[in-house]
Design goal:
5-stranded antiparallel beta sheet, 10 helices, 2 domains, Chalcone isomerase, alpha+beta, single chain
């Protein structure tokens, strides 16, 4: 029994938060980065993102550490946690834990500098861009067609990082489905498109990344979602795109660089 008791005590001690947590540093880190999704006051910006205000310090620390070392998988949070030091984790956890819990249905406003984007809709993309890739998305029964402008295409052809002026664009279509609601696959192996739903885009230019905190910044890239009316979708949060693409700094922050390069070199 004594050994079991000592083992449990050791486990409990291991889960205790660091006593030297710096609340001021935690507040600064949260306001600079975490607030983009979880709110500066620990109240998230959407129903799909958890509130962290009033959570237990040990729980927050354990989750951030698991995200950092990869034992917990999350594409967006894993990319952010990987950049946090042990002190960052302890301080941010302590700050969130010090906040009062969120009232029901409350939300934080999106950070203005992460809503603002420099990306405009490319009205002539059908004639001036090159379609270079298609991806099926089974979970959402969607298929996406990807396009690149001449600047991005030339850089990929030359084997260089995508420079300012590069623009990558995607049409997002629902997939045609059969009687069992399963996507219908065409002869090319891709879902057959049904209805155009919206557009996504990423582009870069000088100074576009200057207002974005370092833990999120993708050099000068900005992101956008456009409606069928070719207008910016209200409430789109660049923070999620930035965090998702953040680990791709060696490939111009682009998931499809290999496909783009193959098409560019074949032209």
């Amino acid at each position: 029994m004594m050994k079991k008791h000592l083992a449990l005590c050791a486990m409990a001690i291991a889960l205790q938060p660091a006593l030297a947590a710096d609340l001021a540093a935690g507040k600064a880190k949260v306001e600079a980065v975490c607030a983009a999704c979880h709110g500066a006051n620990g109240i998230s910006v959407s129903d799909a993102i958890p509130n962290l205000a009033g959570q237990k310090v040990a729980y927050l620390e354990s989750q951030l550490k698991a995200l950092k070392d990869g034992t917990r998988k999350h594409q967006v949070m894993g990319a952010i946690a990987a950049q946090l030091s042990a002190d960052d984790i302890a301080n941010a956890a302590a700050w969130f834990a010090s906040l009062p819990g969120a009232a029901a249905a409350s939300k934080s406003a999106l950070l203005p500098h992460l809503v603002k984007t420099g990306v405009a809709f490319p009205a002539d993309y059908k004639s001036s861009f090159t379609r270079y890739h298609t991806i099926n998305f089974p979970a959402t029964r969607q298929v996406r067609h990807y396009y690149a402008n001449p600047v991005a295409l030339q850089a990929a052809r030359d084997g260089k990082p995508l420079p300012n002026g590069a623009y990558l664009f995607a049409e997002v279509h629902s997939a045609k489905v059969d009687a069992d609601k399963k996507p219908i696959v065409g002869g090319d192996g891709f879902f057959q498109p049904d209805q155009l739903l919206f557009y996504t885009a990423m582009a870069r230019d000088a100074g576009w990344g200057s207002a974005i905190p370092d833990l999120l910044r993708n050099d000068e890239w900005n992101y956008a979602v456009f409606t069928l009316a070719r207008e910016l979708r209200a409430g789109a949060n660049q923070a999620e795109c930035l965090a998702c693409h953040k680990p791709l700094d060696k490939t111009s922050y682009t998931f499809t660089i290999n496909e783009l390069t193959a098409v560019a070199k074949a032209r």
